[in-house]
Amino acid sequence: MNIGIWSRALDLAARTPSARHRGVDFLRAASIIVVVIGHWVMAAPWVDEAGPHIAHMLGHQEWTQWLTWILQVMPVFFIVGGFANGISWDAAVRDRKGYGEWLAGRLGRLLRPALPLILFWAVSGWLAVQAGVPAGMVGIASQIALVPTWFLAVYLLAVLLVPVSRAAWKRYGTASFWVPACLAVLVDAAYFRFGMHGFGWINYLLIWGAVHQLGFGWLDNRCARGGRAAIWFFGGLLLLVLLTESGPWPRSLVGVPGAEVSNTTPPHLPLLALAALQFGAVRMAENFLLLRLRNLRAWAATVLVNGMIMTVFLWHSTVMMLMFGAALLLGGLGLKSAPGSGQWWLMKLAWIGLLAVAMLPVVGFASRWEQSAPGGKAPKALRQVAGSLILGGGMGLLAYRGIVHRDSGALSFVPLLLPFLGALIAGLIFNRRPSAGASGGPPP
Known about the structure:
Blueprint: H1 3-14, H2 22-42, E1 46-48, E2 51-53, H3 57-60, H4 68-71, H5 74-94, H6 99-111, H7 114-130, H8 135-146, H9 148-160, H10 162-172, H11 175-193, H12 203-219, H13 228-246, H14 269-292, H15 296-306, H16 309-329, H17 342-366, E3 372-374, H18 381-401, H19 413-426, E4 432-434
Antiparallel strand pairs: 1-2, 3-4
């Protein structure tokens, strides 16, 4: 580890205000790391006499779908995001800062790090096609690499709506969680009972919005206090079992390639049950985490990782695809074991270690965009909202389709243009200054 970086993290950790809730920062970093490891574990490319194959363990071995009950931790990130966004917005209101000024600070670290990733895949995807790599392979590789951006597009909506959602919490309390949760039940009923699949997409806002509200409940200590945390945990667990074992919802809590129904695309009720379970777990573990994070080195490590965690999240699939590509060029080195075999699982441990090492130089270079701060006057709020929605829409299209058209090999020009156009409108590019580095600040 770079001694200078660690020294700065120790210095920042030592200067942390006592009132800061360190568990929030830890859970933010930990949830992303779990997601990264989950993606690395479930990817199952291999090479045999017929050539290279791309598989996913969730579809290859059904028992691995149980692992998603542990590895699907995006609800934790949304809960932590609600906590941090609530603190930030309350401070802005107290200090009489406008929505535009507040939003500029939240959007920069959330969205700006995605732009170099998209640019990288636009250039490398075009070069790969020109070099003779099949367009279908480039399209699949870029889609897998850009899947993390779907999360940013969804979380972006929660951030944009914070003034409304926070006001709803302060006025209606837990009803601001239960109302969208109950509406999500109706949407799922329309989806499964009446085949109205178009309605399912509304659940992106209802389910993830409801989970975000739980962060406000945590912040104000109005949900899952004391023994009630166990009720949330076991109630969520029971509901999750009932939904997936007795209902039309699949067991896997992330999408399974080729499956007719996914619990995440669009979101369905099992994700709400999982959120309740994880919310209860977070509240039960809260005091333990706070006690452990009093240790300066443990807290400094949390500060250090938080300063680059969005970069890790965005680039981990890209590093994975590049390393798999290099293995193919080397004759399938490390990819010749049949997925699911004992030898394959041993090789997977080696692959995870190799990917973690390969991430270091990438994060060292790309994290500068995460650790930059907006400079100058914040753009008008309406301009930021419009720009970020355009940016988010472009990211969603790229995550869904990939960088190139799989038949012609031509770049997906419009989806590629939208993120940069949106960033320009929102003032996220050509309007920044370098910051001091990892701040250990609240989640964006």
